[in-house]
Amino acid sequence: MLTRIYNTLKGKFDDSDVDSHLDYQYIKRQRLLMSTIGCWPHKQFKNKHYVAHSMYNILLISVAFLLPVLEVGYLWQHWRNITFFDFGHDVLCILMAILVLQRLFLSRTNKYYKMIKMFLFEFHLFYFKERSQYNAKIYKVIHIVSGMFTLYVQCLMGLGLILFTFKPWYNNYSRGLLSDNPTANITLEQAVYYYSPNNFAYTTKTGYWILFTANMPLSYFVTCGLCGFDLLVSTIVFQILGHLQILKHNLMTIPLPLDVEYGIYSIEENIQIRRRLKENIEHHKVIIKFVDKCSDALNEYSFLFYLVLQIMCCVLLLEISAMTSDALAKYGPMTLGMYQQLVHLSVFFELVSTKSAQLINVVYALPWECMDTGNRKTVMFLL
User: Fold this and answer.
1) For residue 86, which of 190, 223, 208 has the smallest C-alpha distance?
2) Domain count, the chain
3) 17-65, pLDDT tens digit by residue?
4) Per-residue pLDDT tens for 191-220?
5) CA atoms in the 13 A half-sphere facing the CB of 360
6) Cα angle, residue 335 at apex, residues 329 and 340 outer, rounded to 5°
7) How many Å apart are CA 277 and CA 282, to the nearest integer?
8) How far separated are the first and last CA of the chain, in Å rounded?
9) Element counts in the chain: helices (H) and strands (E)
10) Which domain holds residue 28?
11) Which of 296, 304, 303, 302 is nearest to 111 (CA)?
12) Angle formed at CA 254 by CA 252 and CA 258, multiple of 5 degrees
């Protein structure tokens, strides 16, 4: 059963026969998401349209600055009469806007550009798949998992975005507030609330439709800023896990001496062992170099991600604690998405730590006692 499911998914997500890994569907999808929020380094990749993207970046940063200011302005404007749940909703939107703003700044740093460039043009398993059959096998598995995970995140983004944006519209419609003869002193519900002079966007149909129309691209922008960046980081972690698995396999498959009686490598065998140890050390250096670049580039991202996301998760739990159909429909998918991001990134980082720790035992288990002095020193250095 599992084999049949895997083969079915492999047929749908395996497009690894293209000439360049940049043409993979999951990379194209991630490039589109990151380009939407101006976080794909087009200039560094010699894209001829990078001037237009630069102008687009200025617009995005301006909008990202304006969103939390207008949201705080709404809280200040309605401080005396806002309900507890509406206050939580506004705090949630402010935190999301701040998180997106931080990621916009992060994605415009040189260390971020260097990380992406090394990931796509040096570290990707595409450049290692020809070295052995096992490399090709791991490359294929990581490729399929990356494709499946990218599609899953995109579907979750779409579902959450639709419910978050259109549920308030449905509430207004079902209460007859959008009819030709609405009741007096109406207060129209919006997906996100911003400062509006004289509550124009919340008390008049004209203002409502203006803000409703503006909220759709703004919500998409924030959703891409939250999920697109995390999706890219997850894809990078998949590649790191693939490299660690390949390194572990290469170390575990170092053969024992052919001379079973004496249990010592011959001169020719020691030469081969020296070559294999050197290849593994070089591979390990590549992994460490890339992980260091990721740590340097993503330190601020990781800190703010865990700080803000845990606060957001608490606010979301408060919002859905009302247990009404409206609260569950509006905040349920968002809660699932946020906890999914918190859990899967935490699990991925923990997997990297666990895989790295396993290498210690693998190196220690090498038959170093069968090697000559030079190879023993090499194993000691690697350990």
Assistant:
1) 190
2) 1
3) 667 777 788 888 888 888 888 888 776 666 665 566 667 778 888 888 8
4) 888 888 888 888 888 888 988 898 888 888
5) 4
6) 130
7) 9
8) 41
9) 12, 0
10) 2-382
11) 296
12) 135
